[in-house]
Every structure is written in structure tokens, then in C-alpha cells.
Recover the amino acids of this structure.
DNA sequence: GCCCAGGTATAAA
DNA sequence: TTTATACATGGG
């Protein structure tokens, strides 16, 4: 990974297997917004503007230290995705097509609580409205010390009532958000320790939270706890499995099932005709 | 107006 | 154990 440091930022020179568009628009995160061709977002209480410049990617107005300590990790830039892609594309022709189409997806290392809360909100919902609700949650309840609209902590949400949450228009999910926040805040659910458990045990723990079923639990494992074998199955993935992997289960993708799932999901959403 | 959305809780079979 | 229905809200 070649890096150039400017007076006002860090530039990644022609990075391999890293596309902002594919990474942000593949349905794994909901808080990054495109403005004037640049992506603006917040993670771990830091604001970032990041954008393409030719084949390079510019991280605006940050130090090398911040890049190394926060963003290289967040974007999973120290993982060799070319190896994962090579492995996956040998498994099945549709996976090869998917990786050829969107080889720049990175599985972000999101904050575990943010991922949990976000995917509770995602249930029976569409992506534009998921984004809207999460944005309202941050606008209304962010507890950042720096006056930025970061994702509110579980402790902050745990102090709220279902009625307090009414401005975010989450509907029936509000009670689930509160329950998750209370369990995390009280330590009944410890996301750090869940990260070290075998995946089935981890999912069973997460499913103690109201509104968390197998799909949301897999999303938390994959996007929040970076367990790359977690395989969230939604309506699209169900169709894909039925058509291309009939009778098989996600274990055929080995330890990278979750990455496979992300390539397939992104690919099939832009080519739904493949399923016909 | 109508159908549906990166599902889950609950009740009924 | 499997299958059916309600759920809040608003995008398309």
C-alpha cells in the first residue's frame, strides 16, 4: 500500500481492491453521504471526507497518525482481499462474476454497537429509510464531546424511553433499540466478549436482544465484529442460494462466507435479471 | 391507493 | 417443529 502525505491529507496511491463507491454502497453501512463527489462520514468519533482523485483515494485533512490508527483499520486496508477474491472466484462461476464486477468492496470494521443498532433498524425496511432513521438518531441524540453528529452510545440510548425516540420515526423498532441499548449498557450483552465466542454461541447471545434474529445477528458478527464467516441471509441471498447453490449451505465459502455474501449481494442487486 | 422493504415476535397449525 | 400474520413508516 503506497501512501503519500500532503499538508492537508493522506493520499492512497492506486490501491488494489478498494473502491469507495462499492464499499459504501453495498448495504453494509448507512451513515456515509455523497456530497459533491466526495464521501462524508463519521466513525469512532472522527469525521472524515474521502474521495477519488484519478486512481488514487484522498483522505482529506487528516494526519498520517490518524490514518494509521483509525482509518486504515476501519477500511480493513491491511487485509489481502486479492487472496480472498482468488479463493472465492474458484468456487463458482457466479461468484467469479460477482468479484469481477465489484472487486473493490472492503468489509468495514464498524463499531459493534453501531452495527447492532443499525441492523435492528434495517429489519423490514428499505435502505433510503434506514439511512434517514439513523441520521435522525444521530442528529437528535449524538453524545459526541466534539459537536459532531456521531452515533450515540448505548449508554445514552439506554436512558431514553420509547417515546423519547419518536422523532426518529423508527416505528415498532424503537422498543428493540431500547432493549439492545439497555442490555449493552448493563453488560448483559458484552459485544467484546461475544467477538471471541464460536459463531453459533455468539449469535445465540445476540438473539437474547428483542428484535435480533438470525439475520441481524449475522450482520452484527460480520459488520460489527468482523467475523468474515458470518453469512447474513436476506431475501436476495435466499434467491441466490436457491438458484446457484441449491441444497448447499454457506460453509462452502469457507472462512470468507461473509465476504462472498457481500460480493453476491452487491452484484445481484444491480443485476436482478440474473435471478430470472 | 398499492406494494414492499438487507426480519422478527407471536400465535396457530 | 413449521407456517402464517402483524408490525410502523414511508419510498417508489
Amino acid at each position: 500500500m503506497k501512501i503519500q502525505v500532503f499538508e492537508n491529507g493522506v493520499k492512497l496511491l492506486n490501491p488494489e481492491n478498494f473502491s469507495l463507491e462499492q464499499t459504501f454502497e453495498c448495504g453494509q453501512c448507512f451513515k456515509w453521504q455523497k456530497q459533491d463527489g466526495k464521501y462524508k462520514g463519521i466513525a469512532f468519533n472522527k469525521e472524515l471526507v474521502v474521495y477519488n482523485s484519478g486512481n488514487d483515494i484522498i483522505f482529506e485533512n487528516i494526519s498520517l497518525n490518524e490514518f494509521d490508527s483509525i482509518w486504515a483499520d476501519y477500511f480493513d486496508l491491511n487485509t489481502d482481499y486479492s487472496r480472498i477474491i482468488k479463493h472465492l472466484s474458484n468456487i463458482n462461476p457466479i461468484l467469479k462474476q460477482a468479484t469481477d464486477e465489484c472487486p473493490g468492496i472492503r468489509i468495514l470494521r464498524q463499531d459493534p454497537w453501531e452495527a447492532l443498532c443499525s441492523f435492528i433498524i434495517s429489519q423490514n425496511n428499505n435502505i433510503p429509510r434506514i439511512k434517514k432513521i439513523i441520521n435522525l438518531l444521530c442528529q437528535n441524540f449524538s453524545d459526541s464531546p466534539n459537536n459532531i453528529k456521531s452515533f450515540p452510545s448505548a449508554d445514552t440510548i439506554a436512558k431514553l424511553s420509547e417515546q423519547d425516540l419518536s422523532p426518529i420515526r423508527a416505528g415498532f423498532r424503537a422498543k428493540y433499540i431500547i432493549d439492545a441499548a439497555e442490555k449493552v449498557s448493563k453488560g448483559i450483552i458484552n459485544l467484546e466478549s461475544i467477538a471471541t465466542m464460536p459463531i453459533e454461541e455468539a449469535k445465540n447471545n445476540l438473539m437474547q436482544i428483542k428484535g435480533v434474529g438470525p439475520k441481524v445477528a449475522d450482520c452484527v458478527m460480520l459488520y460489527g465484529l468482523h467475523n468474515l464467516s458470518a453469512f447474513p441471509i436476506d431475501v436476495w441471498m435466499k434467491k441466490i442460494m436457491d438458484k446457484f447453490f441449491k441444497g448447499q449451505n454457506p460453509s462452502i465459502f469457507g472462512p470468507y462466507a461473509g465476504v462472498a455474501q457481500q460480493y453476491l449481494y452487491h452484484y445481484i442487486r444491480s443485476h436482478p435479471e440474473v435471478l430470472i
Q: What stands out?
A: The longest strand of chain A covers residues 46-53.
